[in-house]
Design brief:
This protein is an all-alpha fold. It contains eleven helices and no strands. InterPro entries: MCP1, MCP1_TM.
């Protein structure tokens, strides 16, 4: 048996190793070491999110002018002549050579492009610390993306619940999903209202609010075509207001229950104005003569 002195002499100095303590509520197996590549990707993601955010702010200029002249004015009961005058005034602003390309096409392209880029980048590595939270049944964090604006239960004080979209499609959030729907319905609207006249006449100078009346009351596909036009216009309005308002509240870091109620109030108000405006458009008289024939050509293009 070795003596105590021999045991002491056999001891050797070792290099100390730091111990990483995982954050509270995070399993130790989910911790990871940050590499230089990780930092590069984080910077890229941060830049893309900034581009997406500020391009959205730029688009708000056009969005506000267009909504005011096509939804708010008819929705609050202004006369057709006044609505048309306001529409002409706003259109002269947002279809100006500088405003149109910089504040509409460029901002939309940057916003959509940065969003697609963010979806293509594998960010799951940076969300590992949140994987445990995503499995929670009782949600207490009002800032989570997968709850959206919270739904009816949140407004009634019943707590937060994961949205149907995020439950069935975990990679999507209500804001992201509404953005996809908005983009598709906006593309349909843009073709009908802007591209079709350009393909027929070379420009869209003949377009007035009366064209919306033709759009809602006439279709070479009959009743089904008119129903599709109604649905697409209403879908564009409702989804656009949800996406814009909820996105704006997110960028402004407004996640309280009061903020969510205000957001729902704004969305509901403008969607209701859209319904009223569409009802009024459908009661206006159709254009006759040359302009009426051109409107029919635009609508029959697809």
């Amino acid at each position: 048996m070795s003596s105590p002195n021999n045991l002491v002499s056999e001891l050797a100095q070792v290099v100390p190793e730091p111990i990483e303590i995982p954050k509270e509520g995070t399993p130790e197996s989910e911790s990871f070491n940050v590499t230089p590549d990780d930092n590069v990707w984080k910077r890229i993601i941060k830049k893309l999110r900034s581009i997406q955010k500020y391009s959205a702010y730029g688009f708000l200029g056009f969005f506000g002018l267009h909504v005011t002249s096509t939804i708010v004015a008819p929705g609050i009961g202004l006369s057709p002549e006044t609505c048309q005058d306001l529409f002409e005034m706003c259109r002269n602003v947002y279809l100006g050579p500088i405003f149109e390309y910089s504040m509409i096409y460029t901002t939309v392209g940057l916003h959509v492009g940065s969003g697609i880029a963010l979806r293509c980048i594998d960010t799951r590595k940076y969300r590992k610390t949140f994987s445990q939270k995503q499995k929670e049944i009782i949600i207490k964090d009002g800032e989570r993306d997968d709850i959206g604006l919270g739904g009816l239960g949140t407004l009634l004080g019943l707590g937060f619940k994961k949205s149907w979209i995020s439950t069935h499609f975990p990679s999507l959030t209500p804001l992201t999903f509404s953005g996809y729907i908005m983009f598709l319905s906006l593309a349909f609207h843009f073709f009908k209202m802007r591209v079709a006249p350009i393909l027929i006449d070379g420009d869209s100078s003949l377009i007035t609010l009366r064209y919306v009346t033709h759009y809602l009351k006439q279709s070479h596909y009959g009743t089904a075509g008119k129903a599709i036009n109604y649905i697409m216009l209403l879908l564009l309005s409702g989804v656009s207001f949800y996406h814009v308002v909820s996105g704006l509240f997110k960028y402004r870091r407004q996640f309280s229950l009061r903020a969510k109620k205000i957001a729902y109030g704004v969305i509901g108000t403008f969607t209701a104005l859209s319904v009223v405006a569409m009802a009024r458009f459908s009661r206006w008289n159709l254009e006759s003569g040359f302009i009426g024939k051109q409107f029919m050509k635009y609508l029959h293009l697809i």
